[in-house]
């Protein structure tokens, strides 16, 4: 979904509400490494106040995942909040680090679906565990050690 922001940039005191729901089927087609079991909900607003344009939004979804240690499948809900300052261009002498939270919208538009999806992916944990204390599988017999010890000798 593309937000049209020309008015926001040119008039102060404006705001645009964001309320987007991307269907799971569509996301599963475009995102081969994730499996969505619920839509990706994006809610928030773009506001301009005293010449400064800010974007605040929250994403929420549910993913079907598999534990990296015991391979158990489960659904888990994820939710994150993000804030940015939107600008049409960065000053030439700008120090990149200082503008980390800035998003440049040179043509007065912002693809909120693309942004939300990329920020979601960056926020997800790199290790997926069914439980912090998951014991995993026995490397010898494959027994799920969360369900009890096996007969194998300790390695
Ligand atoms: Zn596990
Ligand atoms: Zn074993």
Brief summary:
This protein is of the alpha+beta class. The protein contains 3 helices and 7 strands.
Task: Outline the structure in words.
- The protein has a 5-stranded mixed beta sheet. The protein has a two-stranded antiparallel sheet with strand order 1-7.
- It has one domain.
- It has 155 residues and is an alpha+beta fold.
- It has helices spanning 6-10, 24-30, 112-123, and strands spanning 2-4, 15-22, 40-49, 52-66, 73-87, 102-104, 109-111.
- The model has no long low-confidence stretch (mean pLDDT 92).
- It is elongated, with a radius of gyration of 21 Å.
- The protein starts with a strand and ends in a 32-residue tail after the last helix.
- The protein is built from 3 helices and 7 strands, in the order βαβαβββββα.
- It binds zinc ion (2 copies).
- One zinc ion (ZN) is lined by residues 138, 140-141, 143, 150, 152.
């Amino acid at each position: 979904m593309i937000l049209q922001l020309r008015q926001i940039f040119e008039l102060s005191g404006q705001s645009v509400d964001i309320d987007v729901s991307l269907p799971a089927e569509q996301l599963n087609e475009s995102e081969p490494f994730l499996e969505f079991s619920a839509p990706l909900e994006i809610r928030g607003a773009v506001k301009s106040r005293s010449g400064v344009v800010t974007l605040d939004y929250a994403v929420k979804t549910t993913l079907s995942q598999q534990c990296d240690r015991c391979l158990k499948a489960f659904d888990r809900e994820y939710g994150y909040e993000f804030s940015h300052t939107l600008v049409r261009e960065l000053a030439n002498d700008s120090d990149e680090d200082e503008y980390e939270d800035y998003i440049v919208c040179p043509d007065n538009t912002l693809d909120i679906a693309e942004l939300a999806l990329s920020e979601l992916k960056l926020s997800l944990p790199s290790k997926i565990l069914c439980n912090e204390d998951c014991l995993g599988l026995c490397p010898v017999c494959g027994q799920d050690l969360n369900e009890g010890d096996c007969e194998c000798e300790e390695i």
